[in-house]
Amino acid sequence: MVKTALVCGGGGFIGSHLVRRLKREGFWVRGVDLKFPEYGDTEADDFVVGDLRRQEVCERIIDRRFDEVYQLAADMGGAGYIFTGEHDADIMHNSATINLNVADLAHKRNIRRVFYSSSACMYPAYNQEDPDNPNCAESSAYPAAPDSEYGWEKLFSERLFLAYNRNFGMENRVARFHNIFGPQGTWDGGKEKAPAAICRKVALAKDNSEIEIWGDGLQTRSFLYIDECLEGVLRLTRSDFEGPVNIGSDEMVSINQLVDIVAAIAGKKLHKNHIPGPQGVRGRNSDNRLIEEKLGWRPSQTLTAGLEQTYEWIERQVRSNHSKAA
């Protein structure tokens, strides 16, 4: 019997990569999203363009008992989208509605296990004020005080999927993603995250010129390459541990250091022009002690190795766009 999988959010960055990975494992895969993948054709056996906020669409999509369901669909983006406050109502309404629909339909179809992608944005802001010593251990989640409404919605939806475990005997799995990046991710338009935005700025900049950086650049983060993310997702989904657990790198860098790494990859000497802009918390880093204890695994690829592949891809997109505009 061929195993079946459903990837909600299969047109997005992580979802399209996950579809490809599941196909390599021999799964029959259905993807669903508001749009097809932006950079290349989907590899899903069946791909439905549909709005998971609508219950009738969910009923059409979740029409059988899939072996594995991955709920990645959400209204999301980088700091320029999440932290301005202008999109809070949409973010909370859209993502919560999707999760309510998927959790309920999976239960009614007797699907035992759904993987849910939460985010490190649900961690308390008060534990992330020191850029050199952030606390993002899974146990630090409460008392809750996320730094954004996006984080509050993620926290609610974690509790939703785990409540279905307790009340209905489901075996849902919850992971908290820390800044996933890689080729074929959003790199312009306002929803891109820091690695993609910086790769784009460096690709566009001339040697010995300057690029703009939001804030003083001393805020810290960790960034996880897409292949490592998928490995963590599959290991957690197929494990006996429900989570929540961090899926992220613990190689913490400042945004200034991130710029320096990308500039070195590009072979450019660049100056940083620090300007006002949304920054989020001052420090964030994945604490990987629990995932190593429970799954016997933790991400190991270096940030530089992932950025080399990502920069090469984004530089090609930038060149292609320029040639089309010329």
From TrEMBL:
InterPro entries: Epimerase_deHydtase (IPR001509), NAD(P)-bd_dom_sf (IPR036291). Gene3D superfamilies: NAD(P)-binding Rossmann-like Domain, UDP-galactose 4-epimerase, domain 1. Residues 5-248 form the NAD-dependent epimerase/dehydratase domain. Keywords: NAD. The keyword Cell wall biogenesis/degradation does not apply. It comes from the Bacteria. Transmembrane segments: none annotated. This is NAD-dependent epimerase/dehydratase family protein. It comes from Devosia ginsengisoli. The lineage of its organism: Bacteria, Pseudomonadati, Pseudomonadota, Alphaproteobacteria, Hyphomicrobiales.
